[in-house]
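Example complex used in Figure S2.
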Amino acid sequence: MLTKEEVEKISQLARIEFNSDDIESMRKDLSSILDYIEKLKEVDIKGVEPTTHSLDIKNIFRKDVAKEFGKDLLNLCPQKEGRHVKTKPVF
Amino acid sequence: MSAKGRKTCKNQTSILIMEITSLRIKEIQEGFAKKEFCAKDVAESFLKRIEKNKEIGAYLSVFSDKAIEDAKKVDGLMAEKKPLGILSGIPCGIKDNIMVSGQKCTAGSKILENYIAPYNAGVIDKLEKEKSIILGKLNLDEFAIGSSGEYSGFFPIKNPKAKGCVPGGSSAGPAAAVAGDLCVFSLGSDTGGSIRQPAAFCGVVGLKTTYGRVSRHGLIAMASSLDQIGPLTKNVEDAEIVFDAIKGKDNMDATSCPDVKIKTPKKFKIGIVKEAMGEGIDKEIKEGFNKVIEKLSKENIEIEEISLPYMEYGLACYYIIMTAEVSSNLARYDGVKYGERSEADSLIETYFKTRKDFLGKEVKRRIMLGTYCLSAGYYDAYYLRALKVRTVIVNDFKNAFKKVDLLMMPTTPTLPFKFGERTSNPLSMYMADLLTVPANIAGLPAISIPCDNINSLPFGVQFIAPAFHEKNLFAFGKVFEKL
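Predicted assembly (574 residues):
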């Protein structure tokens, strides 16, 4: 079972704010799912290579050519100034 | 009934609408050729029916004017005997996580409620080239996360074929729209069963394509190593026609592949998956599936019991890989680049507040689980282990296809369930994907085909083929649906 502190730490990493009721219900839900996932420990994976995706393809290259993007993309951000996306200061 | 047979209803407008909207692709094309109706008539019939059936909740937006305009263009081409596409004048609906340039694309989430797609998805370019008429965007579980259509950020979707029951998810709108005659075909996306499971619950055909077969460019990402776009249709032939229109390499999706030529056997050998009749599968489903097996035996179709010993680990494996990819893909919704923003005093607080206010509970749950599985100290125990189990499952399928051409099993472990039945217990909701997830993990094509109803509820059977062998699913599927 996850602890309240562990769930709070995950919420920090995931950048999602929760109130204390939400933390408690998240703690219960995540713990029951993690219990189910424990099942994977039954599988013998000694010497098995991981599969990141199902296709056997290698790097796909294309020419590195800059393309014009429409102003539409910039218009999608919540706040902008000129040609820039605007946010609160980072530091 | 053929298109010709339906002509007798031409003077009764309301019946005509119903008749046209129940037609398959080739029947509509036949009607065009015989001048029984034109593309504009067809588009109008669907738009009227959509308007009358708003309570189903299938559509999030309807492009009425644009659809009529596009249909008129097709009529113009037909009148001038100019070349047409393979879907000319055929109306469709698009899951609202696939971008149609200049139109809203919400992915069923409040955080993208006002997002306007700045470009077309690869599949939309292809549909436009074939002159299909896009009627509008279809409702879904938020970010394609959910198995019941109850997690849409806007309103839940109803099952037109099973009163009081959920339509399945996450392509709930696409399945309900085809089942309710609100489009001829639709496009959905399938990450762990999101096309096949709702297709089975709504009594329609649903195809998950081979990973890499259809471009994901312009599909709002959920879990990139598993997501695939595919059609939902009224029969197998329509699925094949739409698949032929949307498949192929797209330079904008590095994982998309060129066409592969395959051999279709004259006589198929079908593998019955032993594990799909075991724990976690409802009695009604087992009984219904046994009847299907009996039918095949009577038709002298060669069948063999096949064991996929590691299939039972598929769901646990999926819930690590998928949530890990979800947590990474959905990190982009931070209130900075696009979507909604909640104002706060600092940038970091803006992230926290925006994601709290605009993401739904199930989406948050999966982001949290994925973040945990990828976090320092847990990566090897969860994510890396899951990737290794993934290899073991892939090998299971490889071994099975040495013995048989296709694998067969029920699409879902239960019949359609009631609204609210599973929302309080996330794990019970996840179990709905038990039999569909393995094909995504191994990147294989799979189709769900409706069979005889069980207790008046839709029931679907799923066939899985080796990678790039969609043609074999269609060839056998067309025989199977007529049994």
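Chain A touches chain B through 46 residues (CB under 8 Å). DSSP finds three helices and two strands in chain A.
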